[in-house]
Amino acid sequence: MSDAQDTMEHYFSGRELARKEAFSGIWGNELHAVFKDVAPYYDVASNVASLGMCKTWRHRFLNAVELKPGDAVLDVCAGTNAVGIGLLKRQPAARVCAMDRSQAMQDVGQELARANGVQIESVVGDVHHLPFQDNSFDVATLQWASRHLQIFDVFREVQRVLKPGGCFYHCDMLRPESPVVQRLYSTYLKGCVSATAWLFGSGAEARSCRDYFVEAVELFYSSREITDLLEHVGFSPVTSQDAVGGVMAIHRATKV
Ligand SMILES: C[S@@+](CC[C@H](N)C(=O)[O-])C[C@H]1O[C@@H](n2cnc3c(N)ncnc32)[C@H](O)[C@@H]1O
């Protein structure tokens, strides 16, 4: 490892440790209970909470993914399979494997796949260890979940299971670099999460996570840092489409 890579390794390990210390209690059972609670209305609630942005960004994300017939796709933290279903509608000759820790989210996802006339393989488990051999997939996707993960580890796992030349597409809410945008964004997020929990009559777990959803973004990475992290674990080239002052971005990273 060169000196520059060594510095990066220390920097990101430190940042990941700080995130783990702040959130490991929530990332375990608490968040699991939240997704179990919200599974039946997750798709509608996300769209309401984001004032329709969720649908727009999902569309942009799906459009960014390049798929060929026969491609094997791994959707990491697939939730209710919205990404897998959208991809199979565009490329029915692809194969999608969805992995998520929440059986409840995947149960809804399997129902939605059936209703949309597509087949998605489901693997329930923690994505910090992907139960697949090296070089297994042509494409991997990860949308709106990495704030809840140790992403240094997950990005390495994704890199391992992708075939050389395979592409990883990542989309999430990120930490804006401007403190002013960050303050406005945190206020907006707090309001949205509270209003949505009230509107959908969410359980105590979901309501108690209101502050977490805001703090998770505040301790997360900027778009530029996500690029650096992806390059550090061995992807090249890495490109990004950023929007709304850096609060959202889509990254495309190719395995060398
Ligand atoms: C906000 S949802 C996003 C779902 C989907 N990617 C989408 O775009 O709608 C986050 C998902 O990440 C899953 N998740 C969180 N931590 C996980 C972990 N360690 N392993 C596997 N899944 C996890 C949750 O169960 C949940 O379904």
Which key features would you list for this structure?
Rossmann fold, globular, 7 strands, binds S-adenosylmethionine
Percent in helix:
40-55%
Which fold name fills CATH's third level, the topology? Rossmann fold
Q: N-to-C SSE series?
A: HHHEHEHEEHEHHHHEE
**Number of continuous helical runs:** 10
* Alpha carbon gap, first and last residue: 17 Å
Which descriptor suits the 3D outline?
Answer: globular
Gyration radius (Cα, Å) is 17 Å
CATH-level-2 architecture: 3-Layer(aba) Sandwich
Provide the list of bound ligands, each named once.
Answer: S-adenosylmethionine
Describe the structure.
The structure is a single chain. With 256 residues, the chain is of the alpha/beta class. The protein has one domain (3-23, 51-175, 221-255): Rossmann fold, CATH 3.40.50. Helix content is 52%, strand content 20%. The protein contains 10 helices and 7 strands. A 7-stranded mixed beta sheet has the order 3-2-1-4-5-7-6, with helices on both faces. α2 (42-49) crosses α7 (179-199) and α7 packs antiparallel against α9. The longest helix is centred in the first third of the chain and has 36 residues, at 3-38. It is globular. The mean pLDDT is 92. Residues 35, 77-79, 82-83, 100-102, 105, 126-128, 143-145, 148-149 line the site of S-adenosylmethionine (SAM).
